[in-house]
Amino acid sequence: MKRQEFKGEITAFLSLIFVLLLSLAGALIQSASIHITKSMKRADTELALESVFAEYDQDMFEEYDLFVKIGTDETTISRRLWFYGAKNMEHKIQKIQLLSDGNGQVLYGQIILAMGGKATSDSLSGETNSGADKSENMGTDFGANMEMDLDGTQEQVSGELQTILQQEGQTLSVEDNPIETVNQLKKSSLLSLIHPNPESISNRAVQMEDLASQRSLQKGTGYDNESLESGVTQKALLAAYIVEHFPNHAKQEEGEALLYQQEYLLGGCSSDMENLEAVAKKILAIRMAANYTYLLTDETRQAEAEAMAVGLCSLMTVPGASVVVKQAILLAWAYGESVLDMRSLFDGKKVPLVKADETWQSQLTNLVKLGTTEEVSEQKEFSEGLDYSDYIKTLLFAENEEALCMRTLDLLELNLGICVDECVTALEIKSTCEMQRGIKDTFVTDFEYK
Q: Which of 51, 169, 311, 442 is the most exposed place for a label (fewest CB within 10 A)?
């Protein structure tokens, strides 16, 4: 029988191919396993980080519509991540953003987001105006803008009057002189002159050095906290937020560190009384601007002022003295009318922004009795106009946003007993996990309240 011979080239080649295929399959399986492990670790970390931030402070949310996670300690955050499933990993904070960062810009951004969801035509117009006519709010802005011009007019008239009196070597008669009456009233407490019950004014006060706006704060790292773009809408939302969440003199709430909190946001003083006085002076300036502007258009009342000025200047020889005195009388009259307006506002009543003959309250001849026991009551009641809270809203809208945000942080601390520089609003962590055969994976996970 002929002997058969077999060659092994094909078998050896297929064996080598099979080994390579097995190696490739093993590598693919290993790679898939690694990628699956990576994905699971990253998913676990993302879920854990979201769970950590789900532990937001409920009081802050329920009372002020703000989301914050209290606690900036890296060890505490790592433990909470471990608790929620991000185990067998090392976590390090890369970036952290605090509510107080950017001089209140982070808070401002959260407020815009919170109020943006509520913003409707009613909240932007009806709510901020509280039923007041839109033109009246425009007029209030006009009055606020006139404040500096009015101050300049008062200084100019006062300076010219003093120059004339020095040239004449005499003084104006104190009797029946509203200018002297008003000068004396300006030296006394405004609240004692306008408040219906000065004894009821809150005497609460706080230590300013302990507040967020005054002390050195912890700062977050890594996040860009540049000033947000601020326009009319953003300022209106900020003012609406403050009105919605903080009380004022007209709408007090018990149990707070300060009772007049909107006034604190505008005044920035340590006590309720100081803040109320500061706000009263700002509103008085608006009222004076409006009332003086009206007097300049009322020929009848200008004639009264001119007649009184001529009488006061009867012994003077300086030409034009009566003209200067007349302007001083008009300014004094505007102040007296504004005092009556302020009394109405602090009594919970409305006052027309732009006066007319029928809405003017004071008589020039009675001005010398203002603030005395002989004062003649001249207050009227009006069905239309702006009330105290409307003026507060206007002042809030005109105030610097950074100042408002920093003082809002103060109130959050006072009302909730927290530290705003321990309130986290965004976080980025770098996680390192070790997988099989010593392979390590490093990835970044972040979360921000939005």
A: 169
| Burial grade of 422 (CB within 10 A; 0-12, 13-18, 19 or more) | middle
Nearest to 147 by CA among 326, 332, 281: 281
Locate the DSSP E strands across 336-437.
423-434
Q: Which residues, including other chains, have CB under 8 Å from residue 118's CB and lie 6 or more apart?
A: none
User: pLDDT digits over 129-183, tens only?
Assistant: 443 344 344 444 444 455 557 878 888 888 888 887 777 677 777 677 898 899 8
Give residue limits of the domains in the chain.
9-103+419-448, 118-414
> Given its phi and psi angles, is residue 5 left (phi above 0), alpha (psi -120 to 50 degrees) or beta?
beta
Alpha-carbon span 102 to 420, nearest angstrom: 13
Q: Is 423 helix (H, G, I), strand (E, B) or coil?
A: strand
Cα–Cα separations (whole angstroms), residue 328 to 287, 290, 304, 322, 367: 17, 16, 13, 10, 13
The amino acid at residue 212 is A
Task: Give the three-class secondary structure for 248.
Answer: strand
Interatomic CA distance for residues 406 and 104, integer angstroms: 5
| Per-residue confidence (pLDDT) for residue 144, from 0 to 100 | 47
First to last CA, the chain: 90
Count the residues in the chain: 450
**pLDDT computed for residue 319 by the predictor:** 65
What is the distance, to the nearest Å, from the Cα of residue 36 to the centroid of all Cα atoms in its chain?
A: 49
Based on the number of CB atoms within 10 Å of its own CB, is 165 exposed (0-12), middle (13-18) or buried (19 or more)?
Answer: middle
Q: How far apart are CA 336 and CA 365, in angstroms?
A: 11
Q: Which residues pair with 169 in a beta bridge?
A: none
Helix (H, G, I), strand (E, B), or coil: what is residue 105?
helix
Cβ neighbour number for residue 5 with a 10 Å cutoff:
5
Distance CA 161, CA 156 (A): 9
Q: Which residue has the tokens 């009675």?
A: 366
The per-type count for the chain, helices as H runs and strands as E runs, is 17, 4
State the Cα–Cα distance between residues 268 and 265, nearest whole angstrom. 6
What does the DSSP assignment read for 73-102?
-HHHHHHHHHHTT--SEEEEEEEEEETTGG
**Contacts with 29 (C-beta within 8 Å, 6 or more apart), sequence order:** none
| CA triple 199-252-290, angle to 5 deg | 80
As a whole number, the mean pLDDT across the chain is 85
Coil, helix or strand at residue 301 = helix
Number of CB atoms found within 10 A of residue 34's CB: 15
Instruction: Judge whether residue 112 has pLDDT over 80.
Output: yes
